[in-house]
Amino acid sequence: MKNISNNQVVVEIQNLGMNGEGVARFNGKVLFIPFALKGEIVLAEIVKNKSNFAIGKIIEILKSSQYRIKPQCPYFMECGGCSLQHLKYNQQLDFKTNLVCETIQKICKISVNVCSCVPSLLDFNYRNKITLYFGLLNNKVILGYYHEKTKNLISIEECYLAPSWFMIVIKTIIDFVDSNNIRIYNYLNKTGYLKGVSVKIVGTSILITFISFSKINLKVNLLVDELINKLKLYKINNVSIFLNVNSKEDTNFLTTENYVIYGNNFVDYNQFGLTNKIGNLSFCQVNNDIKDKLYHSVLEQINNDDFVIDAFSGTGQLSALLATKAKKVIGIEIVKQAWESAEILKKENGLFNLENINGDCEIVLPQLLQNLNLLHKNNYVDAGSRNNQCNNVRDGFFNNYFEVKNDKSVNKNTGNIVLVLDPPRVGVLDNVLKAINKCSQKNNNSLVKINKIIYISCNPVSLAKNLNSLLENFKIEKIVPFDMFPQTSKVETLVILKSR
Ligand SMILES: C[S@@+](CC[C@H](N)C(=O)[O-])C[C@H]1O[C@@H](n2cnc3c(N)ncnc32)[C@H](O)[C@@H]1O
């Protein structure tokens, strides 16, 4: 490191940090420099200088990395979405493999082998859903992203993460809003309507959701005609339009106040040989190719006689796939709408070995594990006497969702009990971990043991913390990162754990 002036330094980048930024040392502390690459020597300006870390901004790259490439997107560095577009794709994959490995090693204080990150078939144009926000620039309607850090709205005309035809959709929507004089919501004086628009691609259909501060009457027939006309070249032949009302003054996310204003509530989508009905609010993994690879890797881990609990099951797409192979699958999902989609999926495909529970894993999973154990101990006593013994279950949950009178799914001849965990970014909460550990301890008197955990994570830090809690009773068998989000520093990870 060389000090050039009070706030300028020349440093060598030693590594990449969690968010893909360059990491160097400066006056004995860590210096984060966004968009600098490992091995580069840069002249940087210190823009933030805290007691334990500093943040720098590149002024000049004095020695460039052999892996640096010219970013494709004109908004790179500005919009804050893609933090790795300047790094060759193979090196992005190496970065993600190392990130997962180092995070787990650091937090769990163990040495682990991590498989190479599974590449995405498309490293651009892979996203099946994009949400943009409305604003005004010189009195003209714009759509853009809010920069993650500055919170400024960055107007964009195209996004390289979406399909190439996405720019047509953006322009057509802006023209529609402009020509109909629909007012954009103003966060300062709390007037107007439109906050954002979310576009979701499901097969040959697009689902467009306008996010509005209050309910408005949108006449969208011409918009639909225009989109169908312009997009038929790209094999889009169906458009559904929704209005989603978010009447909170300062937020712009999708809520449950949702109206279909053109087309169908759900569109049919066939995947893995199963008929799905997908709505504008249904959670879907954003990268179809990686979703397929990830789900099939999970399926490979399941045997025909397994009893599977799929915790955090969303719209039940993975649970349904697993039910085509396992003996019995129970999905647990907190969002009612997602659970309803999972129920439709189950019925449409006649998956009678699948139960979808609408509930909180924190409550349902410990209860379910406890009930499985009681059931096992009592060796299938009839439902009445079993209920007397399960006096902790008063809400009918056991009867409604786990009525197994003649169902010998969980018995002494049953295969493994496999727990799939796919939590949101925060990871699995302590109560759930406690329940898992409780029924997995070697020397406790629990008869039912979880033999395998399949953990899918979108956050290496919460993953590593959760693994740390599970390591007493489980050992890591396999860790595979998947590149669900190319060009960004985000990574999806699959971990297979076996009971000790
Ligand atoms: C990362 S998504 C996984 C969805 C699904 N496994 C898939 O692949 O489509 C996490 C899901 O967990 C649900 N969720 C969040 N907290 C929950 C909780 N405490 N109990 C049950 N489900 C929860 C969310 O609504 C969301 O659908």
Write out key terms for the chains shown:
globular, OB fold (Dihydrolipoamide Acetyltransferase, E2P), Rossmann fold, alpha+beta, binds S-adenosylmethionine, 7-stranded mixed beta sheet, 25% helix, 500 residues
Based on CA atoms alone, the radius of gyration comes out at 25 Å
Helicity range of the residues?
Answer: 25-40%
According to CATH, the homologous superfamily of the largest domain is: Vaccinia Virus protein VP39
Bound small molecules, by name, code or SMILES, are: S-adenosylmethionine
Number of strands: 23
What features would you describe in this structure?
This protein has 500 residues and is α+β, with helices and mostly antiparallel strands. The chain has three domains: 2-63, Nucleic acid-binding proteins (OB fold (Dihydrolipoamide Acetyltransferase, E2P), Beta Barrel), CATH 2.40.50.140; 129-274, OB fold (Dihydrolipoamide Acetyltransferase, E2P), CATH 2.40.50.1070; 283-499, Vaccinia Virus protein VP39 (Rossmann fold, 3-Layer(aba) Sandwich). Helices cover 25% and strands 29% of the residues. The chain is built from eleven helices and 23 strands. A seven-stranded mixed beta sheet has the order 1-2-6-7-5-4-3, with no helix packed on it. The protein is globular, with a radius of gyration of 25 Å. Bound molecules: S-adenosylmethionine. The site of S-adenosylmethionine (SAM) has 17 residues, from helix 5, strand 18 and helix 7.
